[in-house]
Amino acid sequence: MSNAIIQQGRFVSDGLKKTLSIRSDVDWMTVYNETATIRNDVNRPTNFYWQRGMAAGRGLKVVKMGAVAGDFLTNGQTAASAGFTLVNQGSDAVVSAGVAFTAISNATSPVVSTGDTSLLQVGDVVRLSQPVGGFDATALDGIDWQISAINPNVSFTIAGVLPNVVGAGTAGTWRKVNISSIFYPQTRYIINITTANPLFPIVTTSVDHGYVVGQEVRFHVSQVVMGNAYGMTQIDNIVAPITAVTANTFTVSLDTTGFGVFAFPTSANYFLTGGITPAYVGPVGEDTATALNAVPQANILSDATVNTAIIGMALGAGVAAGVDVGPAGEANDVIYWVAGKSFSVSNN
Amino acid sequence: MPITTSGTLPAPVQQSFNQMILSTPVPNYIHRIPAMREHMPANGGRIMRFRRYNPLNSALVPLGNSGVTPPSQNLTAVDIDAEISFYGTYVEINEQVTLQSQDPVLNNASIRLGDSLRRTEDELTRNMLAGTAAFQNCVGGTNGDTPSNITEGSISTVTRTLIGNDGHMFLSSIEGEDKYLSSPVRNAYFALCHTDLTPSLDALPNSINASRYPNQQNVIDSEWCAVNNLRFLVSSIGSITPNSSFLGRNIYNIFCVAKEAYATIEQDRYTAQFIYLPAQFSGPLAQNVTAGYKFASAYRILNDAWVKFIAQFKSSLIDLEAVA
């Protein structure tokens, strides 16, 4: 096919990065922000364009200047990583190149100080590591963490709230995780288990888990010889059905009366024991009875293992409001897009 | 008297083509070996559902002579689902290629497509295991990282877990024979891992290389060694989790598998198909042929207690692999 439009669509932005599945792969793409076009806000990008050969994460934009309808337009380039990025989850690198960070705060929502956040958008997942001898904030290493906030080129904040601080960290490396697994459902790291209602404990994971009501999960919470890491080791190897979910928490039906208090290991725990397997939860299957009895009734097949890999395009949300909004738009923007293929591509 | 040399009279055709096509590297496909093979019936929907009943408690208390009926037990089950997905790829070859090339291009294309199909199946199985299986970090090694390099302690721990979960071993023991340097081999679970781990496996005290098995009859080509109750199959496309150790190094995953731990499900009437379309299908001038394959399959762990992978760094030498 030559210069064919292969796919088009519309979505309402949630203010975050948007990944579109375009199975045939694309050579060019145009995005129209209908909300920005018809509103009379100052400095709002209205159109975006990308074609094969442009740098990953970039694209061209048309910005409507001024607060009056009919004000002039100006052209520009999207900020790095805030534009168009081709996605092929069958072959893309699992993690990005390493980027240095200089410190990790000693907080229950740790803040990682780094001079370069250009690769990141809110909701992205990162993996931390620290050099030999850097046994500070070690408990956070090797685990995938979702980002809840970014201070451009200053820091990012880890989402989720740890039950306790783990120690401040110094220098290390973070990597953006592009895809942890193409299969759903996945094992997920546990960062907290609260028992306000001991019959229905609430589990917090380090990234959005994707689990649904009715799924059964098995807990893996290691025994630790020294220190009181994890605390709630009584829950190890127990299977329980999920009764409620949010993006990064889920509730299970399990009597935890008499169980210890869950505690996240401190870096000292890791140093003294020579290493721990982090607490995590793994999918087991479906408790069909729980799913059918849920209100509203859950889909009893939603636990099915399925390959979720896509080929398509990731639209950046942008690095700031206003003129730096990306093709994914701001929250509630109505976005239209068109994608196509060319007969041949000649980039010299 | 002038001498005619190749400088003045060069050969009209400078090269000869050797008809022997060189081998294309093909990895060992190990991840489907321990899998159960199931079939999705045609017209049977898109999801295969399995069911496993949970065990009932034993009845240790005598009924006595009262004639009173004791309390019953609840029969419960867990359902396990896997959704079929469709896969395929193809090559499109212009007629001038087959016209001008000295080697049978279409034949070689079909061979490469066949290899791509089997590699796809193997990698999908591997990726499913890596994303959904239970795991434990190697500890107690000497590389100063978490996870550490593999130790017999970690092997014993995972073996204890599988046995403790009543997982059945795949492989029977191999009795000792009076052969120099051979050694009896225990009954074993399968362990699937990357070829990079072979030096680490050889360094373990109780490692028995496959060449030293007393009986070579049932040794698979991809088998490397036995360590206690694990027999290791190795592949260059074994599972790696990049930059995931505490020091940012790659982690190698060893899948330790009991019987009936996981399954691959093929779709009836949509198993592997080779599809060749002659040039007449490509357009009015019939310039291009296509050759491809497609298949439908699903992958699922059937009992999460019967498969566990050991996450480890490959070597005890800290400086062997630079952090990327």
What level of helicity do the residues of chain B show? 10-25%
* Total number of helices of chain B: 4
Seen as an oligomer or otherwise, the chain set is heterodimer
Approximate shape of chain A: globular
Average per-residue pLDDT of chain A, rounded, comes to 87
* Low-pLDDT sequence parts of chain A: none
Biggest interface, which chains? A-B, 50 and 49 residues
Structural class of chain B: alpha+beta
Low-confidence runs of chain B (pLDDT<50, min 5 residues)?
Answer: 316-324
Q: In which range does the helix fraction of chain A lie?
A: under 10%
Helices and strands of chain B, in order, run as EEEEHHEHEHEEEEEEEEE
Order of helices and strands of chain A: EEEHEEEEEEEEEEEEEEEEEHEHEEE
- Outline the biggest β-sheet of chain B: 8 strands, mixed
Label this structure with key terms.
heterodimer, A: 348 residues, mainly beta, 6-stranded antiparallel beta sheet, 24 strands, globular, B: 324 residues, alpha+beta, 8-stranded mixed beta sheet, extended, disordered C terminus
Q: What features would you describe in this structure?
A:
In chain A, β12 and β13 form a beta hairpin. By secondary structure, chain A is mainly β. In chain A, strands 8-14-11-12-13-10-9 form a 7-stranded antiparallel beta sheet, with no helix packed on it. In chain A, 5% of the residues lie in helices and 36% in strands. Chain B has 4 helices and 15 strands. Chain B is extended, with a radius of gyration of 27 Å. Helix content of chain B is 16%, strand content 29%. The interface between A and B is large, with 50 and 49 residues.
List the helices and strands and how they pair.
The complex is a heterodimer of chains A (348) and B (324).
Chain A: E1 4-12, E2 18-21, E3 28-33, H1 34-38, E4 44-51, E5 60-64, E6 73-77, E7 84-88, E8 99-101, E9 103-104, E10 111-113, E11 125-129, E12 144-151, E13 155-158, E14 172-177, E15 183-184, E16 188-194, E17 202-205, E18 215-220, E19 239-245, E20 249-252, H2 267-273, E21 280-286, H3 288-293, E22 306-307, E23 311-315, E24 334-341
Chain B: E1 36-40, E2 47-53, E3 77-83, E4 85-94, H1 95-100, H2 105-132, E5 134-137, H3 152-164, E6 189-194, H4 198-202, E7 207-209, E8 223-227, E9 230-235, E10 240-241, E11 251-257, E12 262-267, E13 273-277, E14 288-301, E15 307-312
Parallel strand pairs in B: 1-12, 5-15, 6-9
Antiparallel strand pairs in B: 2-3, 4-14, 6-11, 7-8, 8-9, 10-11, 11-15, 12-14, 13-14
